[in-house]
Amino acid sequence: MTLIRRLSTTELPPGEITPRGVFERRRSIIRAGLAGAALGPAHALFASPGASAAAAKLATRPSPMSTMEKPTSYKDATSYNNYYEFGTDKDDPANNAHTLKVSPWKLAVEGEVAKPGVFDIDELLKLAPLEERIYRMRCVEGWSMVIPWVGYPLSELIRRVEPTGNAKYIEFFTLADMAQMPGLSSSVLSWPYVEGLRMDEARHPLTLLTVGLYGEVLPRQNGAPVRVVVPWKYGFKSGKSIVRIRFTEKQPITSWNRAAPHEYGFYSNVNPQVNHPRWSQATERRIGEDGFLQRKRPTLMFNGYAEQVGSLYAGMDLKKSF
Ligand code: MTE
Q: What pLDDT score does 291 carry?
């Protein structure tokens, strides 16, 4: 995240992209199906009859927590990515992440919990009803997107493992396997990619354990098969392809904080009043709106989620706890 790079014009290989029209038709079919069914756990996986190669469909229910803003195109959301384990250019993840083996996949939960355990991805998919959550996402580099994620609140998982009274933070660990991730040969970050949240942040209903986007299972470049999404924080807090979650008493040392402590704090809440030491955070460039005459958008406090999350930080100096 050292440079702001321009949108790449590199195309994905044919078959990797679901045209938006196809996505929307499928979504309305799935929704229509759901509407007819009793709204129980809506985790049923659909085999894909359609255009996109291997993407399985996810049955979701809409969420009142979704923004009404227009989603970024599927193509932009899946071809302009940060996933340094696959390279540091925006098109590297889409070009290189095919080597990521997403099945079988296990997520270990450990640390300060009464019920530690290992969850298989299929178990995780069934843990709670899947929702479509259309969230604004703001990258610390100054660009933003609107993405229809699929998942359920991380609190559903937290509740089941019964955190102890000592659990003050949660630490998330991404897979780090040289054989699958060419970017690990670079020392740009310390691996595995580690992120963390305070318990109240992790339990907040907006914090999403995410398994899909645009009604389909997550593409590899977006963090398949399971990631976290924290929409009021800069994108790097939303760790991808998570294999381990640890509940801790001490504040975790995260990868970006370790790499550049003066630039990336533990909290990393979207805050237009606290600039990155090397650039302003007052405005943002919405991906897909780039154009000669396109004006930048003002960045909103907590990425527009101030009403929901502001109270988590009452009394804190957000210039110090940046
Ligand atoms: N997770 C891992 N494991 N590795 C990464 O490099 N990049 C982060 C975050 N999660 C990253 C990661 C950053 S900087 C951003 S902006 C978001 O993922 C991008 O998510 P997206 O590509 O799905 O939009």
A: 78
